[in-house]
Design a protein that fits this description.
mainly alpha
Length: about 100
């Protein structure tokens, strides 16, 4: 019985850890993609978002006594949704010319 619980916990921890790592790799790049068309700028923004969310997420973790991994990922996700809302790529182009 305890062996099953131990194996289940170990496998779950590996899965959750992999998901957090995947999110920490994917979300900063996705956020940067919303804000630029240039690969060079995308790379710089991605590094900036990754470093910033990691540092601020660890600070939030220390202040509010929450796990650091989920704090970082939730912060990165919030920034991603803000970037999606204010993305220059979402500007609607109607193509209508107004004449007076």
């Amino acid at each position: 019985m305890w062996g099953c619980v131990g194996n289940g916990s170990r496998n779950s921890l590996k899965t959750v850890g992999a998901i957090l790592v995947f999110a920490m790799i994917l979300i900063p790049a996705s956020t940067a993609y919303q804000l630029t068309h240039s690969l060079r700028t995308l790379t710089l923004y991605s590094a900036f978002f990754g470093i910033t969310t990691s540092v601020v997420g660890v600070l939030i973790s220390a202040i509010w006594d929450v796990p650091s991994g989920p704090a970082i990922v939730l912060l990165a996700t919030a920034i991603f949704f803000a970037a999606v809302l204010f993305s220059p790529k979402r500007v609607r182009r109607t193509g209508v010319v107004h004449s007076h």
